[in-house]
Amino acid sequence: MAEGTLRGPAALEPAARRWRQISPRLVPLLAVVTALIISMLFMIGIAFITTGSVDIGHELNVTGTAYSALLEGSVGLVVNNVLTPDDLKQAQAFIATGDFTPRDVNRASRTASDIANRGSLNQLARFGEVLARYPDLTDEQIDELGASITDIAAVGVDTLTAMKPLVADLGEQSPGNVRRLAERIAALDTLTPQARAEIEAVAPSAADYSDDDLLAYLRVVNDQGPVKLQRLVTQAEALAALGLQADDPDAQDLAAIAGLEAASVRDQAAFAAQMQAAGITDPAALTAQLRLVRSLYDISLLINENVNEALQTELGTALQNATVILRPNNQILVSRSSAPVGLIWGDSNTPDNPADDRVDAAYLRLGGRALVFLPANLENMIVRSIPFIIAGLAVALGFKAGLFNIGAEGQLYAGGILAAWVGFAPQFAGLSPWVHIPLVIVAGILGGLMWGAIPGFLKAYTGAHEVISTIMLNYIAILLVDWLIKSTNPVILLDVNASTPRTPFVNPDAMLPTFNEIPLVWFILAAALTLGYGLWIRRERLREDTRLVVRPVVNALLVLVGGLFLMWITVRGALHIGLLLMIAAVWFTDWFLNRTTLGFEMRTVGANPDAARYAGMNVRWNTILALAMGGGLAGLAGAIEVSGVQHNMQPGFFAGVGFDGIAVALLARSNPRNIIPAGLLWGALAMGAGLMQTRAEISVDLVKIIQALIIMFIAADAIIRYLWRVPEPSLEEKEKGLFAAKGWGG
Fold first, then answer.
1. pLDDT, tens digit, for every residue of 561-593?
2. Nearest Cα to Cα of residue 642 among 444, 438, 448, 434
3. pLDDT of 348 above 60
């Protein structure tokens, strides 16, 4: 062995040392990965419990579909197939059996879909053979006969034949009188002379039946009714004329055909025969391909009205000169370019003005597949994440002070309702957006701050535990907002013209602008200011080393590119500048905690209030300040949601956002810089859940399970450290996680 060469365990030592160095910082990420793995095992276990067996390959495919849908629904990334002529082979084979126009393709796809939903091709082929054996029967006759076969079998053909004279006589009487007579006779145990006489009075043919038979026949009349019984007798004769018994296979098929409507079955049987002639056995696949063919006509990639000729002469060239990406549910994305990278544009609300069209997707071709980015999904996810991040920040600030602020939910409502009032109140109407929007934001911050200060004062001066007081204040805030909005006598904040309880919409001048409404010059100006500030703070050092200019330039470029990217992904007009307010809130909180005296005192009080008091720090003041500032942050989240998303306030509007903030803060380990990725993860799970349920047919509750597992692994990180061989936390890590370690009751 060459000198210096390591083999066996010794070769792993550098990697192990490196893992010990970096893995402590990866504990939250490892908690997420572990939660996803356990959720997959959970789904496999459920499948085994419910079915008694499990197909691992199938379950892994379902899990992959679910997690792929989560990714697509959140960040908009997905891999889809690119349409090739081979994807339309069945449609081409079927269309080659006849002369089809684009309209015929529409009808054919509907018929193929009906066949896929109703039954197998073999069954339809058998139905076709049955219909061919009885060519004289019209569709109406088949429907009527088939609908009666089950009842004919229940009564019996022999019984109906024997009853024919009696039924004919009874048919000449009033159906109501016959039914009353039959009901009275059917209740008898034996037929009395008086009863026989009464029957013979209305039906002379009754004299030809014995007492037992006549009583049995009257019971049949009572069960079926005189009108229906006449129809059954007629259909029994028609069945006999065909040489069939009610339990014959052909009779049963006629009954099945009638249940599906004979005319429809006749068409479908002919269609199924046409499919079999083309060698096609999967009607669902044919349906999808026929719809794709029709879609190619809708976007003018195919033009020839003879579909067979179009598929033979136009399809190959069209797909060489364009990119058609297959999406679920027979949807397609189309680029008129065959380039490996491109954008797909969608029409805006004003189709005649292409200048305001937005990007539907960007794609990168990977052979027969394409990596697709759907900016609208990312836009919606970011919007959904903003309140999670700010609410998580509010909770994390309390954690740093050794306080468990469970009141973010109520503080959101307090800030939101005050922001809504400032937004729509006539006293503020006519203000410039430069004034009105800041007023709305400040009102939201003040509302949350005042609501958060209440448990702060109670904690500082009465010793009331913040967990109990904030929980109670949540209920008070939620129900107070409910009353303010729903009150009708007097009307306080209710919009009396609305169909559901809510406040009036805030004035347009109080709505947060979206990134697609911001002129490009503002992004350029922001980049220039970033560059200028960076150069100014480095002005002394730049004289000695001009290479230091690189960082300000890079920061300015990042600001410009980031702004352009945000403007580009705002395709639905949803992503608002509340994102910038959120970033500012995160920066301010991190700066306050780590760069100010007040922040240092707050962290010291959270680590050891007795030591802080001994050092001369005001523990009461810091307690009030921490909960008030946390409330202000939560109120900011409420104001942003009202001004940027909903534009009004409704009862139950925030639906647990404040409580989700607790989970986000725990996942971020109370570090303001980690709040953003933690909140984005929470928003991604929330946004991807619906698409996951649609694509993989898995309940959205799976996302709640994943969230619960993540929080459990964060709280009990010893599990993650054991599973992933992460070293025990250092003294510094323990100090950072001191609050989680000692708990809210400590």
1. 999 999 999 999 999 999 999 999 999 999 999
2. 444
3. no
Q: What is the DSSP letter of 136?
A: T
17, burial (CB in 10 Å: exposed 0-12, middle 13-18, buried 19+): exposed
Token readout for 113 is 């879909």
246 pLDDT more than 90: no
Strand order, beta sheet including 369-373: 77-81, 369-373, 358-366, 341-346
Q: Encoding tokens for residue 430?
A: 């006519």
Range in 78-82, 201-205, 414-418, 675-679 with the lowest mean pLDDT: 201-205
pTM of the model: 0.82
The pLDDT, as a whole number, for residue 696 is 85
What value does the mean pLDDT take over residues 650-671?
88
Tokens 């400032």 map to which residue?
422
Give the rounded percent of residues in the chain with a pLDDT score beyond 90: 49
pLDDT at position 576 is 95
What's the alpha-carbon Rg for the chain, to the nearest Å? 38
Contact between residue 564 and residue 584 where contact means Cβ atoms under 8 Å apart: no
DSSP 347: -
Phi, psi of 429 (to 5 degrees): -65, 145
The residue type found at 570 is: T
Domain 380-514+570-742, CATH number (from 1.10.1740, 3.40.50, 2.60.40, 1.10.3470) = 1.10.3470
Q: Are 643 and 511 in contact (CB under 8 A)?
A: yes
How many other CB atoms are found less than 10 A from the CB of residue 584?
Answer: 11
Amino acid at residue number 636: L
More confident position, 455 or 18:
455
Beta strands in 155-196 (DSSP E): none
Flag whether pLDDT at 744 surpasses 80: no
pLDDT, position 347: 62
**CA angle in degrees (0–180, nearest 5) for 640-641-642:** 90
Give the pLDDT confidence score for residue 125 in this predicted structure: 80
Cα–Cα distance between 582 and 633 in angstroms, integer?
A: 9
| Both structure tokens of 440 | 């709305």
Q: Where are the domains of the chain?
A: 85-91+283-373, 102-277, 380-514+570-742, 515-569
C-alpha dihedral, 712 to 718 to 724 to 725, nearest 10°: 180
Residue 737, pLDDT score: 53
Please report which helix (H) or strand (E) contains residue 80, including its range: strand 77-81
- Give every CB contact of residue 37 below 8 A, 6+ residues apart in sequence: none
Q: 491: which strand partners? A: 488
Amino acid type, 231: R
The counts of H helices and E strands in the chain are 34, 6
